[in-house]
């Protein structure tokens, strides 16, 4: 493999791994802040205990999220020097703003939060929890504005052989970015909600700390139903936006080849890189309707897009189908959990399944990123710069070395981290540190 | 308005230097503490005290690296692209070291097993020592010049980087950080450990003086860092910072005023960084052997608009960051109490 392919693999691996930990951080930080708020408002010890128990798991997850995030900033320079030089004027400044306005806040106060249980008043401690939660989510805003620029570049002019900033407001109000942000945040809340429900279910089955875990479960179930419904609704309008500005991605998501009005959706479809291997049972107009809210709308097919601008169709198609399928499953599970939230101990079979469903929103959210990023190929900046032009002038040997070491370290850390989180989760709340 | 663009680029060049200086001052002491871990801690409790002395801070400190990197990316994208891809392997090593170190804080205390703790202690040491060394090597090589060609995209392999001057930079950084860390331990520990840490700091001081003088002499031979100073001798006042810091450090150590000594050490580290930065100007990465290919503030700066917006962001947020980090430091400035050991 050449340095380009290796760099793509490395970036994909680094991002995918980082994104195992980020969603839980985003969602759980808010849940913990809510628990601390409940403690401050009611003075009930159980809420403090909840914040500490979930906080302990959260910290392991948080550490892995932070250390794997640093890799990403470095990689733009090490592996994607061409890209960095070309769009650094805009993209670099967004990353710098993220560090200055959000990451500092998050990293400083996570230290205060961890060590401050006995040194700060409950109120001040609650404030640090909200600062961590707010800063984490603000981080996501800036990162996704940066990603939004890669998806739908705006607010720039071509000057001096690179994209230079022309309109900062256009960059930060990029609707693509805000769709991505909403979709990611809601998905992340679903991740945290299923995590809390799954762990609580495990303990409820064993009748450990029933009051504690029933409260946790109710909180998880409420968030789960809200997040999984909203992520689907919002996902639909996100899809409309993609259809409008990234026709090639939409065509790949649906493996849609012929440009046509009243474009159908096939109930049975096997995609291929050069056309569908099988398509049967069409529902006329459904694709047009889903993409543009109008069954007669024309949907551009891949045959009308130059072949060298096709994203990897099969992967994008399957990832999209997988995401939607798992999202539907999440709505059903969350709906049941929420309806039965007060009598949930009477459904032991359901409680037994829940811990195994913890990975579902994780997989859905990873698949979503595959749709977003693989579907953007061959562009590193949509319509502006090809991924192959962004890569650094480094040797394949150098990249192989770092890819191998990185994968080894990440695998070990991932195993340790997940094992530790499981251990804490099973241990249940214990007093003291 | 070419001149406004130039002024903005100059301001950003100085801020770029200040960010690196902040990073070296702040992460410097916790990297130093980590490097000292195997040598200074005699038992498990002392190890935990050492971990806890930096526990609340290291994460926030490391963000100064992210933001120094981010500002290089934002203000001088071409220099960022070249610096990071040209120093590919050492930066990857730095990164892996920092990753292992970061998780060692979180993982170490979580399992009650000597073997498990030993693994993370090793990660803590390697993850502290290697960054100190590599940052020194990388920056010394930048001072000296990287092999840039006229397309600005060239590779410096790791063996080229490990030249005598590069290694001298590595040694200087390591000693500087270790001493800085020993002073931090003198503030935040008690009893026997505190005694050993402060004795070590006092013993390391003459070593640091000698290495600093040698490094300066070596710089005069191997780099162009003195060019600006010889041209405008008034600039030599910048040297007052590191020299003053170095002298005061010894004075305060003698008086057992550890906070003041740490502050003097911070001034020394920050001053040394700024001395080099002023010497580099207007290059960000000088090219060796052909200076015409250097990356300068002019040929690698972002657009005027980006520099302006970034300046607005920096003027608002950097003071806020400093304020709350100062508050965090104030909250945890007491000697680590063995009753509340987190790690």
Automatic annotation (TrEMBL), chain A:
InterPro entries: Cyt-d_ubiquinol_oxidase_su_1
Subcellular location: Cell inner membrane
GO biological process terms, semicolon-separated: aerobic electron transport chain
Highest taxon of the lineage: Bacteria
Topological type in the membrane: Multi-pass membrane protein
Main location per the UniProt record: membrane
Segments passing through the bilayer: 12-33, 53-70, 90-115, 127-150, 185-205, 217-235, 318-339, 351-372, 399-420
Alphabetical UniProt keywords: Cell inner membrane, Cell membrane, Electron transport, Heme, Iron, Membrane, Metal-binding, Transmembrane, Transmembrane helix, Transport
One Pfam family cited in the UniProt record for this chain: Cyt_bd_oxida_I
KW Membrane (keyword) present: yes
Coiled coil region boundaries: none
One Gene Ontology MF term: metal ion binding
Gene Ontology terms: cellular component: cytochrome complex; plasma membrane
Family under the similarity heading: Belongs to the cytochrome ubiquinol oxidase subunit 1 family.
Protein name: Cytochrome ubiquinol oxidase subunit I
Organism the protein comes from: Pseudodesulfovibrio senegalensis
Automatic annotation (TrEMBL), chain B:
Keyword Electron transport: yes
Listed InterPro entries: Cyt-d_oxidase_su2
Positions of transmembrane segments: 87-104, 125-145, 165-185, 205-227, 233-252, 259-285, 305-324
MF (Gene Ontology): electron transfer activity; metal ion binding; oxidoreductase activity, acting on diphenols and related substances as donors, oxygen as acceptor
Lineage: superkingdom: Bacteria
Protein's cellular compartments: Cell membrane
GO cellular component: cytochrome complex; plasma membrane
Alphabetically ordered keywords of this record: Cell membrane, Electron transport, Heme, Iron, Membrane, Metal-binding, Transmembrane, Transmembrane helix, Transport
Topological category with respect to the lipid bilayer: Multi-pass membrane protein
One Pfam entry name: Cyt_bd_oxida_II
Keyword Lipid biosynthesis: no
An annotated GO BP: aerobic electron transport chain
UniProt-listed NCBIfam families: cydB
Record family assignment: Belongs to the cytochrome ubiquinol oxidase subunit 2 family.
Protein name: Cytochrome d ubiquinol oxidase subunit II
Gene name in the database record: cydB
């Amino acid at each position: 493999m050449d340095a380009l392919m290796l760099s793509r693999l490395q970036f994909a691996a680094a991002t995918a791994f980082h994104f195992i930990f980020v969603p839980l951080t985003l969602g759980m930080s808010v849940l913990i802040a809510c628990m601390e708020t409940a403690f401050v408002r009611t003075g009930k010890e159980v809420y403090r205990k909840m914040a500490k128990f979930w906080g302990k798991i959260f910290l392991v997850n948080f550490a892995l999220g932070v250390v794997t995030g640093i890799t990403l900033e470095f990689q733009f320079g090490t592996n994607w020097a061409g890209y960095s030089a070309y769009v650094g004027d805009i993209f670099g400044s967004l990353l710098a703003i993220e560090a200055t306005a959000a990451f500092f806040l998050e990293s400083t106060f996570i230290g205060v939060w961890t060590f401050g249980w006995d040194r700060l008043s409950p109120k001040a401690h609650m404030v640090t929890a909200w600062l961590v939660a707010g800063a984490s989510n603000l981080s996501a805003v800036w990162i996704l504005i940066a990603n939004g620029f890669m998806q739908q570049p705006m607010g720039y002019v071509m000057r001096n052989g690179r994209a230079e900033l022309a309109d900062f407001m256009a960059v930060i109000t990029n609707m693509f970015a805000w769709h991505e942000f909403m979709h990611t945040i809601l998905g992340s809340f679903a991740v945290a909600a299923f995590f809390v429900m799954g762990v609580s279910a495990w303990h409820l089955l064993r009748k450990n700390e029933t009051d504690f875990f029933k409260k946790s479960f109710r909180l998880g179930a409420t968030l789960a139903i809200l997040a999984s419904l909203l992520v689907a609704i919002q996902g639909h309008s996100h899809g409309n936006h993609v259809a409008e500005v990234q026709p090639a991605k939409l065509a790949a998501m649906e493996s849609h080849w012929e440009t046509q009005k009243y474009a159908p959706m096939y109930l049975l479809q096997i995609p291929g890189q050069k056309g569908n291997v099988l398509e049967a049972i069409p529902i006329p107009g459904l694709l047009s309707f889903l993409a543009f809210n109008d069954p007669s709308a024309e949907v551009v097919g891949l045959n009308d897009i130059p072949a060298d601008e096709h994203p990897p169709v099969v992967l994008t198609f399957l990832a999209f189908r997988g995401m939607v399928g798992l999202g539907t499953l999440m709505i059903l599970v969350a709906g049941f959990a929420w309806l039965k939230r007060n009598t949930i101990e009477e459904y032991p079979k359901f409680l037994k399944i829940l811990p195994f469903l913890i990975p579902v929103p994780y997989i859905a959210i990873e698949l979503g990123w595959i749709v977003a990023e693989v579907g953007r190929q061959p562009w590193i900046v949509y319509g502006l710069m090809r991924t192959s032009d962004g890569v650094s002038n480094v040797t394949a040997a150098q990249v192989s070395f770092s890819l191998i070491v990185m994968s080894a370290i990440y695998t070990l850390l991932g195993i340790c981290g997940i094992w530790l989180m499981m251990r804490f989760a099973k241990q249940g709340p214990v007093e003291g540190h | 308005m070419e001149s406004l663009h130039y002024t903005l680029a100059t301001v950003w060049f100085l801020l770029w230097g200040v960010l690196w200086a902040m990073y070296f001052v702040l992460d410097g002491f916790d990297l130093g503490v980590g490097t000292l871990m195997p040598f200074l801690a005699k038992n498990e409790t002392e190890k935990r005290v050492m971990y806890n002395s930096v526990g609340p801070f290291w994460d926030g400190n490391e963000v100064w690296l992210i933001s120094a990197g981010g500002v290089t990316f934002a203000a001088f994208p071409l220099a960022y692209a070249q610096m990071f891809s040209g120093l590919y392997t050492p930066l990857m090593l730095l990164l892996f070291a920092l990753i292992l170190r970061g998780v060692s804080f979180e993982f170490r205390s979580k399992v009650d097993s000597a073997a498990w703790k030993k693994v993370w202690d090793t990660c803590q040491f390697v993850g502290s020592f290697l960054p100190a060394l590599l940052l020194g090597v990388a920056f010394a090589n930048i001072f000296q010049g990287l092999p840039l060609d006229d397309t600005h995209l060239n590779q410096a392999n790791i063996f080229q980087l490990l030249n005598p001057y590069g290694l001298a930079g590595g040694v200087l950084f390591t000693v500087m950080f270790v001493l800085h860390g020993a002073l931090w331990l003198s503030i935040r520990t008690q009893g026997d450990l505190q005694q050993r840490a402060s004795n070590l700091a006092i013993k390391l001081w003459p070593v640091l003086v000698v290495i600093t003088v040698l490094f300066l002499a070596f710089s005069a031979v191997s780099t162009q860092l003195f060019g600006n100073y010889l041209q405008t001798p008034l600039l030599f006042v910048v040297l007052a910072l590191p020299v003053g810091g170095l002298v005061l450090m010894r004075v305060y150590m003698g008086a057992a005023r550890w906070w003041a000594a740490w502050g003097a050490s911070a001034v020394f580290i920050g001053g040394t960084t700024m001395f080099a930065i002023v010497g580099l100007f207007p290059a960000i990465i000088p090219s060796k052997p052909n200076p015409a290919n250097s990356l300068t503030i002019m040929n690698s700066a972002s657009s005027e608009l980006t520099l302006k917006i970034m300046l607005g962001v920096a003027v608002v947020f950097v003071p806020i960051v400093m304020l709350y980090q100062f508050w965090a430091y104030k909250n945890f400035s007491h000697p680590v109490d063995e009753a509340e050991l987190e790690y």
